[in-house]
């Protein structure tokens, strides 16, 4: 059986069996979109990580994972730091990995040669954070610091930066969302936090990974 490609395939199919014009248009659009994605991937693959900078993309609320998948399919390097949070639901407590910066993801590219405008047209993305007519770059070292502090589970670990007297917010456990002050740190990975309970400070012992520096 002879092999066809491109428009010849459509014509051969049409000759064998009538096809609705709108079906042909849909097939054509899909093929053109795939070609466009391949072109963007090739351009992004040529970008050197040395020349690339990190930028911030605003995404739809609760759709961070959705936006990340579509950006990665186009060849963009992305990073979305996570933290652990205890969620109370239906008399149960569930520990979940949630975005450290809800509604935003970091995207890396070289603005001088990359097809960065494709980010704005990505499903789940609202737009890049701009400065005039160009994306606003994140100061060097900030995203790299988050990446360095991320553990194997994809959660940012700030336990090494904790110190006595520091204000923190509890992320997990029965005291989730409460604020307090670190009173003491030990060598076993635990801390004692003075939590604000019933108009007074109560000492509570917990793991270092259960708290996050308060804003």
Q: What does the model show?
A:
The chain is α+β, with helices and mostly antiparallel strands and 215 residues long. It has three domains: 7-45; 53-148, 2-Layer Sandwich (Alpha-Beta Plaits), CATH 3.30.70; 159-213, Roll (SH3 type barrels). It has helices at 7-16, 21-45, 64-73, 142-148, and strands at 53-59, 77-79, 82-89, 92-99, 104-109, 125-128, 130-131, 134-135, 167-170, 179-185, 190-197, 200-207, 211-213. The chain has a five-stranded antiparallel beta sheet with strand order 12-11-10-9-13, with no helix packed on it. A four-stranded antiparallel beta sheet has the order 2-5-1-6, with helices on one face. A two-stranded antiparallel sheet has the order 3-4. It is elongated and about 55 Å long. The termini are far apart.
